[in-house]
Design goal:
Protein name: 2-dehydropantoate 2-reductase
Radius of gyration: 19 Å
CATH class of the largest domain: Alpha Beta
Distance between the termini: 57 Å
GO molecular function, one term: 2-dehydropantoate 2-reductase activity
EC number: 1.1.1.169
Shape: globular
Enzyme class: oxidoreductase
Number of helices: 10
Structural class: alpha/beta
Helix content: 40-55%
InterPro entries: 6-PGluconate_DH-like_C_sf, 6PGD_dom2, ApbA, Ketopantoate_reductase, KPA_reductase, KPR_N, NAD(P)-bd_dom_sf
Number of domains: 2
CATH architecture of the largest domain: 3-Layer(aba) Sandwich
């Protein structure tokens, strides 16, 4: 990639992780609604500290420059509004990378953005400790690709840049399938840990294990109808193995949806559950467990939006 500045829009855990890793390789500007401390510290999975000074900017006061690429790292429910706020400030042709969970905003922003759009799906884990500190909770892997299969050279260059910065990445032609696979895992794990405020590993035990199994069964049927197979192609058993492998590998983790609940923020329930339920409706498949979780999380979101009662 050319050495011009990478804009990272959305200074949450993932955004700051990417910014702090990339800053050793390319110029970086971290963009958000409020200005964070310019000196940021990353706690690595090995327990080391990586401290860097980052250029900060607010969306309303961006510098007059053309970025090499814009990484959109907001939560899924904020991605389209963030893009709309940026769109008038970006020259046509600037590449956009979408790092959102789920499969909701990606098709719409791919059509809307006036330039190349790549989607990223990652297993990198991170959480915020403070305004100036973020923890890289576990090493992962990132896949990059365009929904229409284009822009392979761009994706390859970006993958090399991320890999050199300590975030292993590779290009794929089937990013749509990989987004669905990650959505499937998130749908089987996140609603439960969010609703019951538990760590991932607790899903292995009763009463949660049967709940996970019911979600896996519903998700497997929906994705089979969508012609999306698990990595080993082994139907329901393949989805079961994938989900439980992730649970084991992240047993001590607080899933991102649980982090949002604990922080009193909106969760990504619409981006993760609504696409599956829309597909279930298209194929006339029952999905009562998925629907029940979405209803509960929508009620929580509505309560967050309500103004406090007068004294």
């Amino acid at each position: 990639m050319t050495p011009e500045t990478h804009w990272i829009v959305g200074p949450g855990a993932l955004g700051r992780l990417i910014a702090l890793r990339l800053a050793g390789r390319v110029p970086v500007r971290l963009v958000g609604r409020r200005r964070l401390p310019g000196h940021q510290t990353l706690i690595t999975p090995e327990g080391d500290t990586l401290a860097r000074s980052l250029d900060m900017a607010r969306v309303e006061a961006l510098p007059a420059e053309t970025p090499a690429v814009v990484h959109l790292t907001t939560k899924a429910h904020g991605a389209e509004a963030a893009h709309a706020a940026l769109a008038t400030r970006l020259p046509e042709g600037v590449p956009l990378v979408l790092w959102q969970n789920g499969f909701a905003c990606q098709p719409r922003l791919t059509e809307r953005h006036h330039g190349p759009v790549l989607c990223a799906t990652t297993t990198e884990g991170a959480h915020v400790q403070a305004d100036d500190r973020v923890t890289h909770a576990g090493h992962g892997h990132t896949y990059l690709g365009a929904l229409d299969g284009r822009h392979r050279e761009l994706a390859g260059a970006l993958a090399r840049t991320l890999t050199a910065a300590g975030l292993p990445a590779e290009t794929v032609d089937d990013i749509r399938v990989r987004l669905w696979r990650k959505l499937a895992v998130n749908a089987a794990i996140n609603p439960l840990v969010a609703r019951y405020t538990i760590r991932n590993g607790q899903l292995r035990d009763r009463p949660f294990r049967p709940m996970v199994e019911r979600l896996i069964t519903e998700v497997a049927a929906i994705l089979s109808a969508e012609d999306v197979a698990p990595p080993d192609g082994n139907g329901l058993e393949g989805w079961r193995q994938l989900v439980w492998q992730v649970v084991e590998a992240t047993a001590s983790n607080r899933a991102s949806m649980l982090q949002d609940v604990l922080a009193g923020r909106l969760t990504e329930h619409e981006a993760i559950l609504a696409p599956l339920l829309a597909a279930a409706s298209r194929h006339r498949l029952p999905a009562p467990c998925l629907a029940g979780h979405l209803d509960e999380l929508r009620l929580r979101a509505a309560a967050l939006a309500e103004p406090p009662a007068a004294c």
